[in-house]
């Protein structure tokens, strides 16, 4: 999964599946992290839920997560402030999402 480091931040692709039965990261699909959310994709609810859930999943403050591309699409570019590429890879390995 490509992770782009930039100025003490990382960026990666994510595919969001709204209206799921639960909030979860299901794995890597087509070089993007697949995230299922219970929120519907209306009134920016899924984007807010995505940032909140992902911050909790990573164990960091929600203010360090932003969606920099794809606000109205299921395909998004997510930026995480204060996390290195190596740290992110370790988190993914710990959660059995990378080999």
Structural description of this entry:
This protein has 99 residues and is an alpha+beta fold. It has one domain (3-94): YggU-like (Conserved Hypothetical Protein Mth637, Chain: A). The protein has two helices and six strands. The chain has helices spanning 45-58, 85-94; strands at residues 3-6, 9-17, 24-29, 32-36, 65-69, 75-81. Strands 1, 2, 3, 4, 5 and 6 form a six-stranded mixed β-sheet that branches. A hairpin with a 2-residue loop joins strand 3 and strand 4 (32-36). The longest helix is centred in the middle third of the chain and has 14 residues, at 45-58. The protein is globular, with a radius of gyration of 12 Å. It starts with a strand and ends in a 5-residue tail after the last helix.
Secondary structure layout plus pairing:
Blueprint: E1 3-6, E2 9-17, E3 24-29, E4 32-36, H1 45-58, E5 65-69, E6 75-81, H2 85-94
Parallel strand pairs: 2-4
Antiparallel strand pairs: 1-2, 2-6, 3-4, 5-6
């Amino acid at each position: 999964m490509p992770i782009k480091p930039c100025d003490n931040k990382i960026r990666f692709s994510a595919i969001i599946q709204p209206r799921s039965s639960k909030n979860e990261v299901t794995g890597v699909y087509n070089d993007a992290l697949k995230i299922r959310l219970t929120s519907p994709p209306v009134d920016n609810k899924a984007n807010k839920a995505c940032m909140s859930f992902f911050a909790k999943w990573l164990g960091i403050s929600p203010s360090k997560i932003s969606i920099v591309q794809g606000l109205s699409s299921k395909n998004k570019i997510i930026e995480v402030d204060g996390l290195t590429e190596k740290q992110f890879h370790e988190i993914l390995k710990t959660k059995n999402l990378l080999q």
